[in-house]
Amino acid sequence: MNFLAHLHLADNSQTSMAANIAGDFAKGSIEDFPKHLQQGLWLHRQIDQLTDSHEITKELLSLFPKSLTRAAPIIIDLSFDHMLAKFWDEYHHQTLEEFAIKAYDAIDNCDSLPEKLVSIAPRIRQENWLVAYQTREGLNQTLAAVAKRVSKPEIFDGAQECVKKLDTDIEIAFRTFYPQLMAYSRLWTRNTPAEYL
To answer: What is the pTM of this model?
Structure first.
């Protein structure tokens, strides 16, 4: 799952949106971070762990060509965000535009976030990353931008064409898996270890 899904799952479980998205930038022990971030970081890691290990994700990974093996987990994360944005009305009562503003405000108003998140937060809002996921063009732009940030951009060669080809498989996987993840996120929230509360 990428930014949009983590923010949505935080809202769905009534936990800190900023803390959940911070999980993409927070390395090391959760205890090293301020108390108000710890539950969200823990929840983020539970979400990532289940997503990476789930049979639905593994089956989807197997459909990618060998040339995209290294990039495929990232491509799936971004594609799932695209599916969530595309079918947003089925998963949230607010419009995506309203939710995006709420998310951007939550990030801006949270103290002690990882420096890398703080540095890109203005771009996230200015370029409206969350709403951009709704379109195929937005997904393709995100894939291209991510490719530029990795040490070997060539691992993403053919990603856009592959995602288009696997569109139905990705949608089926998302629609099957994501409601489970929503339920798990609420369950995990109720069972967060006491030391992270």
So the answer is: 0.95
